[in-house]
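Researcher: Next entry in the queue.
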Amino acid sequence: MSPRVPLRKRLLVRLLSAAALIALCSVAATAWLAVATVTSALREEQGQDLATDTGILARLSGYAATHPDWRDVRDEVRALAARTGRRIALTTADRTLVADSAPSRTPLPPRPAATVDPLHTDTYSEPGAQLTGIDPRAVGPFRLTSEERATLAALAGKEKSCYDRHGIRVTVRTTPRGRPVLVASDGTAPSPGYTADCDSGPLDSPTATEQKALDGLQGLARTCLDRLGVRLGTSLYLAFDPSGTDPVSRLLLTKYARASGTTAQHTVQNCVLTARRAQLAPYTAPVAELFLGVGDRPTAPRFDMSPANKAKVAGAAGLVLAVTVAVTAVVASRLVRPLRALTAAARQPPELHVRVPVTTRDETGILAEAFNGLSERRERLEAQRKAMVSDIAHELRTPLTNIRGWLEVTRDGVVEPDTALLSSLHEEAVLLQRIIDDLQDLAAADAGTLRLRPEPVRTDELLQQVAAAHRVAADAAAVTLRTDVSGTLWLDADPVRMRQVLGNLVSNALRHTPSGGTVTLAARREGASAVIRVADTGCGITADELPYVFDRFWRAEKSRSRRTGGSGLGLAIVRQLLAAHGGTAEAASEPGAGAVFTLRLPTAPSPDGV
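Model: Structure for this entry, 610 residues:
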């Protein structure tokens, strides 16, 4: 009796639960999307779009960073309002109107949207402002003169030409203070380490204007430090940054700063930042309040759903949920049916090798096909196992029976132990040993413990040795055994195992080649591989039997005669030994035209380097 599956773990229940959850989430997501879309539309209509607000703030902050006052900002405000469709108003800190895109006497919104202060940009996202809180476009006394710009531009062009000659793509970017900077394709400064002759010292050095501004900034910072009682062990030095992102972003020699016996690096940095703001203040517009809105309605109304809309959403959600559950129940039932058939087939006794019908082409059908394939392979392996046990028993019984019989009659004095008898017994023992060795080799290969002793091996010598070892057998069978080697090929292989491989193939070919036939051992180079072929002119192998030639105990001729029966292990050993050498073995044949066994192995360099 099959175990009872809990209700919550049944596939049908899980599918229904998943479908219900998906449907509920889909409906909720659709409702949320609709609400969010309407709310977003209302907010955009009422002037609450955050991206537009940020763009307006960035534009006005840039104006304040490059102008000492708000005198000419009205045209800028009107242009921004016309482009964005927004009401834009600027006032001083005491709410004195500076500029307004709305008609005069239009009331201001109750609260400002932002503060425009290029020297304190804590809520401003302009690149570079996060470093110090100062708008990078506020350069003040660091702005270069026209002569300095022309000089630096010429140096930048010369340096760019040098990089171009070295195949390095760079572009010239102009910083807010007018200094040209070379930028590589990845956005960083090009490294002069590869092209030291392109490094222009004057281009990275401060100009007279910049040095004067740095000196003034240093004096303001020293005044701040003296006021706070901070003593420096050496003079304060402000590093110069030619990129223009932050003229004094780095401090040197601050480790000598002391205040009450403790390191005062943070105090030094604060004083430098305060000095920068004091130095830039005359060149930037005063702090202003920014008001944004549409007409006289500064805030967007809160979106709320009416009871009727809530009922519609709930009804639609319920309908979609019901339809989804019904459809899922039908689909799930069809999915569960073949799974139940698979479960029933899997519980049958293994010896029955039950198959299941394949009724669909979806994942369940693929699973059914895989199950049927597994049953077929299991049935085939079971048949091979039984045949293997029978073959092993037969192959071992025959020589053991002969040895036992001759020993018994010798013991009883029926025959004398002459040389012929001993030779016959020795031959049977050798046959028995060969079968056991073959089985041991296959077991070692299966267990991954097959040991190889590779060394440089010449293919022509290898083929000659194998041919010489089988010359007597070939002459006895009236079969011509010849070799054909093109060039000198070297293998990094175990010579004993390779002779075993080729010996198995040659022995197999001699058994199946009639008198007057030919067995050929040939070697060629094909790319980076050495290809060795053993071809015969025997009876060949049919197309149906060709895929099984390397299976264990397979024989083209099912006869168990000593001449053509064999043990059925030779070709299986060939495949295992080739795999251990990193090679492959293939068989091709046509009935009546012989067979060709092809071995492919990686070549090795000649030991003497030739």
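Model: The chain has 14 helices and 18 strands.
Researcher: Noted, moving on.
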